[in-house]
Each structure stands twice: as C-alpha cells, then as structure tokens.
Design goal:
The complex is a heterodimer of chains A (316) and B (330). In chain A, the strands form two sheets. In chain A, strands 2-1-3-4-5-11 form a six-stranded parallel beta sheet, sandwiched between helices. Chain A has a six-stranded mixed beta sheet with strand order 7-6-8-9-10-12, with helices on both faces. Chain A is elongated. Chain A is built from eleven helices and twelve strands. Helix content of chain A is 47%, strand content 19%. The longest helix of chain A has 20 residues. Chain A has two domains: 144 residues, 3-Layer(aba) Sandwich (Rossmann fold), CATH 3.40.50.2300; 144 residues, Response regulator (Rossmann fold, 3-Layer(aba) Sandwich), CATH 3.40.50.2300. By secondary structure, chain A is α/β, with parallel strands linked by helices. Chain B has one domain: ABC transporter involved in vitamin B12 uptake, BtuC (Orthogonal Bundle), CATH 1.10.3470. Chain B is built from 14 helices and four strands. With 330 residues, chain B is mainly α. The relative contact order of chain B is 0.20. The chains are: A alpha/beta (316), B mainly alpha (330). At the A-B interface, strand 2, helix 3 and helix 4 of A face helix 2, helix 11 and helix 13 of B.
Chain lengths: 316, 330
C-alpha cells in the first residue's frame, strides 16, 4: 500500500517534468555579430534548459536563406514552437504560412517582419523610443531644474536604433527648458569613434561648458570616458554620462563612478517568449501581438559589480 | 568494368544514398516529403547557378561572378518593379539578357585577350556587386501580384511537403543541361576544350564561339538563379548571396567533375547540391551542432573528392603508359 502510494506520488511529481521535457523548440538566430547577440543566444539556451525544453539551435551566419532553411527544417521535424530572430524584415510570408499550416507557433524575437500579423504568435522586442525617453527622463530628474548643456553621440546614421533613441531622448527632455542638446554627431556605435567624436566635442565646446553626455550605446560612452579622462576632467562628475544597452563594461564603469546611468536592452527575449509559448501550448491563451521587454534603468544606486559578474559570462 | 570517368559520379551517388540513410536512421522524419520538398526548394537557386558552373568547370575554367550576379539580378528586378510599370515577365527577360550578355562579355575577354578566367571573372564579381550597390544599398522588397502568384504555385504532397515552382525550375534546368552537355555538338566542344584547348583547336572546335557560349550560359543561369532567389526572399538586396559561387564550385566538385576540366557529369552536380543540402538539414535536425559544421563537412568532402580525382588520374596514366606511343584509337 505504502509502496503503491509512493510510486503514485512519484509518478504525479514526475508527470509535469516529463511533459515539459517532451517539448522541443527551434531557435533560428541571425548569427553572432555582436556581443549582445551572443548574450541573447546564451540566455535563450539557459532559459530553455531551466524550463526543461529541448532547444534546437541554428545559427544563420547572417544569411536569410539559411534562416529559411532552418525554419523549414524545424517544421519538417515537427517542433512544438519556433523562435525567430529575423535577419531582414522581408521575405518571410511563405515559410511562416507553412509553419501556420503545420500548427507550429512562431515567435519573433528582437526584430519585426513585414508579414501579416496572423502568421506569427507574438513578437518580443524592446521599444527603442522608450529607451531614449527613460534616459532623457533620468537626466531631467538628475538635474532638477539646473541648466545643462548636453552633447549627444548618435548611433550609425540612418539606423533605426539611432533614429528612435534620439527621438525618445528628445521626448524625455522636451518639457525641461533647462536641458539643451548643444551638439549631436554620429559615433557609429563604436568605442573608437565615440572617443574621437567626444574629443572634438570637448575641443569645440570646452570641457567646462558640457554638463552631460548622452550616448546611443554603451560602447561609445566607454570610448568617450577615455576622451574625458585624457582632457583632464572627471567622467561621471564633471560630465554626467548616460547611455543605453547595459553591457558589462557599462556596469563596471558605473561601479567605478565613471558613468552615471545605463538603460538595459535585455538579452533575455527568450524568457517572455517562452512564457507566452508555454501558456499558448498549455491552454491556448493568445498573447498580445507585441510583448515589450522591460527597459530597466541602472544607476550608481544598483549593485553594478554583482550585475557585471553575472553578465560577464554571457558572451558579450 | 566501370569506366574511370563515371566512377566519381557513382561515388557521389553512393555517398548521397549512404548519407541519406544515416540521416534517416537518426531522424526518421528525414524521410518525410517535407524534407525532400525543402531540399529542392531551398537549394533551387544554388542548383541553377551550379549548372552554369558545371559547364564552366568542364571547359577547364572558373566563374567567380556567380554570387554577385545573383545579387545584382535581385536588386535590378526589385528596383525595376518598384520604379517602372514593367511586367515582371518582361523584367525577367530583360535581366536574363543582361546577365547572359555580361557572361558573354567575360567569355570574350577570356578568349580574345587570353586572360585567365580567374582574373576576368573576379573583375566581373566586383563589377556586378558594385552595380548592385549603385542601384540600392537597402533591401528592396518585391511586392508584385504576379510574383506573389508565382510563389504560390506548388504541389502539396500528402504528408505536407510543398513542391514549389523554384524546385521544378531547377530540375528542368538540370534536365536541359544534361541534354546539352551529352547530346549536342556544343556539349562535345565544351568537353573538348576542357581536355585541352590546343587539341580542341586541332580537332576543329570553334574556340571563340564555345568559350563565349559557356560564360554566357553561366551568366544567364546566374541571372535565372537570381530571379529564383529574389522570389524566394521576396526582395533584392545587394549584400545577398555572398560566396554562392564557392558553394556552387563545391557542389560541382563533390558531383564528380574534374577541376582541371574535360571530365564530369551535369547529373553529378545535382547530387552534389543534394548532399550539401542534406548536411545542412541534418545540422538543423540535430540542433546542438554549430552550423559552421556545414562548412567543415563540405570542406572534408571536397578534400576527399579531390584526392579521389587525383587517385583516378594517376591510375589512368599508369594504365595507359604501356600503350603510349602506339597509335591506339580511343
């Protein structure tokens, strides 16, 4: 009797685990062109593992034809769901139709596609404008009405993160007449360009006339910190620095007091995506068509060393 | 006895069958009609380009412009369909004429200026890619009703596989090329040039016409591959299809064609394409291997086939040596 009860209890306890392990997900990733994307891949693997999901991973090496092949392979294999980080926006209709016909839900991660909304379950992306707005609002609050001349390091000219993060920041400071962007130039999202452009800002304006720097990504901010130091100023104090992405080096800079704030572009797109997928597969719950990831603000008040240690191993 | 010229083809076939059997034993779903349909659809553009490459390599040449011509074709089509009211069929004809002409021009330079094909087609590669960039740097979507209609043509197999038009076009191109290579005077001339240009001239092969024809075919088929690719991705993008010429060369060699020219079969290239597609499919099915393993396996296969070719050439010379000097008709 007791034996039977134990077995039964064991079986009940094991049942959900066994069911979860039966779940197989395909993940078609663009490639590993940036540290952030490598981190996204690592986090996606971790998320799948912690949920007991078998993850089939395909790296497309930046080629759409490889992504389409991978998707068709997943469909032929009969996976339970597909995560897709599309390399370009166009050309997905056919393969998404095949997935829909095979009753395999597809979730977009990090980027959108130009296809009918009914062809995918949901899209998990960050809101680039919102990120910029959080940065602007943080600076407005930090300055508390004091006048501030801001210089801006833009991303690659014409790229959507550069356009949207600029727009968002301008929205964030729109109601504050004390804040003014005096110079704005592209630093191409790179560390080296960030440093060069910051040097020219310092020369043109004079270091004492710049109160804050807003960089569209952390890499440019890290380059700019170097330029500010070389100009004999103290980054983080003489010039306040806010940027976006929250890469490990930015946490390190904040911990060292050389930077003031960063807004996180989370590499954990898979968490919300798998939540939505599991809910959909278990009970047919249709998620919203767009799941916005949290754009968390990190400042000196957070334990940045701990975050740095945690993020260091993700592959950034 | 098996003739040594057909041995590479047999090896390719056997490799394919064994590889498919291994894949199917690991993942039974590999036998589904979906996988077969995917192999044909997803590799259609590469297959069509590889047919042109087969002719070029059979003649002892090389064509490095293939990938760039595919990208150019896509961008050209997308821009023409966006900016003019030209019907897609007219645009297809126009771009095929352009690419075939481009190939013919490269062939003419190779023949009349006696330049190595490697250099001439390298220049062609830069030219075509540059022209694509000049037309548009961004990816231009193709949204014509007729193109959508073409993409929606498919025959659905009972277990869900969709045999699309692109795959059909590839098979048709292969069948046509087999006829041309083995049943026409032009085909014989291609083999003759590959066997040695000087001998071919003595045999009365029209070198100029044949060389220009070979590169025109390769250019035109690259254009056709470009059309298939543009419809496949519904867009023209100047950065697309980088390195496709190398994949095509790999498929031709794995298909048993001698890189030195003169020996090989168009049908072998078809199985070369399928073997390469099969490796990719297996890696997606496995899901834990890095996709760069595709390149490693293809590299290893290439190396094996080159060794095999070398071995065969060596074996043939050994066998022929006693007969050398005596006027034996062959």
């Amino acid at each position: 009797m007791t034996l039977k009860a134990t077995l039964l209890a064991g079986a009940v306890a094991l049942a959900p685990m066994a069911a979860a392990a039966d779940m197989t997900i395909g993940f078609s990733q663009i490639g590993s062109e940036s540290g952030w994307r490598a981190a996204e891949t690592t986090v996606t693997r971790q998320q799948a593992e912690s949920r007991g999901i078998e993850l089939k991973f395909a790296d497309a090496q930046q080629k759409q034809e490889n992504q389409i092949k991978a998707l068709r392979g997943f469909i032929a294999q009969g996976v339970d769901g597909i995560l897709l980080a599309p390399v370009v926006a166009t050309g997905w209709d056919d393969v998404l139709e095949e997935a829909k016909e095979a009753d395999i839900p597809v979730i977009l991660m990090d980027r959108m596609v130009d296809a009918d909304k009914s062809l995918y379950l949901t899209a998990v992306t960050s809101d680039l404008v919102h990120e910029g707005r959080v940065a602007g609002e943080w600076l407005a609050e930090e300055m508390a009405g004091e006048p501030c001349r801001i210089v801006e390091l833009q991303g690659t000219t014409g790229s959507s993160p550069a356009i949207d993060r600029k727009t968002g920041f301008e929205q964030g400071i729109a109601d504050h007449d004390n804040l003014e962007i005096v110079r704005s130039q592209t630093g191409d999202f790179t560390r080296a360009q960030g440093k060069v452009v910051m040097e020219s800002f310092l020369k043109a304006e004079g270091g004492e006339n710049i109160c804050a720097l807003y960089a569209h990504n952390d890499d440019m901010a890290v380059g700019a910190i170097q330029a500010i130091k070389e100009a004999g100023l103290t980054p983080g104090e003489d010039i306040r620095i806010v940027a976006i992405d929250a890469v490990p080096d930015a946490h390190l800079a904040i911990a060292n007091g050389e930077m003031n704030a960063t807004i996180e572009l989370t590499p954990n797109m898979a968490g919300p995506a798998l939540d939505a997928l599991e809910a959909y597969l278990a009970s047919g719950t249709e998620p919203e068509k767009w799941i916005q990831t949290e754009s968390r603000l990190y400042t000196g008040a957070d334990d940045n060393m701990a975050v740095y240690e945690e993020k260091k191993s993700l592959g950034y | 006895m098996i003739r040594s010229t057909s041995l590479p083809l047999i090896v390719t076939l056997v490799t394919f069958v064994i590889a498919y059997a291994l894949c199917a034993s690991a993942y039974p779903a590999m036998l589904s009609s979906r996988v077969v349909a995917n192999l044909l659809t997803d590799n259609a553009f590469l297959g069509i380009a590889a047919v042109g490459m087969t002719f070029v390599i059979l003649s002892g040449g090389i064509d490095l412009s293939v990938g760039s011509v595919i990208a150019f074709t896509g961008v050209f089509l997308a821009v023409v369909l966006r900016d003019t009211s030209l019907h897609p069929l007219a645009a297809f004809a126009l771009v095929l004429a352009l690419t075939a002409g481009f190939g013919a021009a490269m062939g003419a330079v190779i023949h009349f200026l006696e330049m190595p094909a490697f250099i001439v087609t390298l220049a062609g590669m830069f030219l075509a890619r540059g022209a694509a960039y000049v037309l548009s740097v961004d990816s231009v979507p193709i949204t014509h009703e007729f193109c959508d209609w073409l993409q929606d043509i498919y025959w659905k197999a009972p277990s869900g596989g969709r045999f699309r038009l692109a795959g059909g076009v590839m098979v048709a191109v292969f069948l046509g090329a087999i006829l041309v290579a083995h049943r026409t005077r032009f085909g014989q001339n291609v083999y003759a040039i590959g066997g040695g240009a000087r001998t071919a001239r003595l045999m009365g092969v029209p070198l100029a016409r044949t060389t220009i024809g070979i590169y025109a075919i390769s250019g035109g088929l690259s254009g056709l591959a470009g059309i298939v690719f543009a419809l496949y991705t519904s867009a023209g993008y100047s950065l697309a299809a980088v390195g496709v010429e190398l994949d095509a060369i790999a498929a031709v060699v794995i298909g048993g064609t001698l890189l030195t020219g003169g020996s090989g079969f168009v049908a072998g290239t078809f199985f070369g394409i399928l073997i390469m597609g099969l490796i990719q499919t297996y890696i997606v099915f496995d899901g834990t291997l890095s996709s760069w393993w595709t390149k490693i396996v293809i590299g290893a296969l290439l190396f094996t086939f080159i060794l095999l070719q070398k071995g065969l050439t060596w074996a043939t010379t050994i066998r022929r040596r006693p007969a050398a000097g005596s006027p034996t008709p062959s």
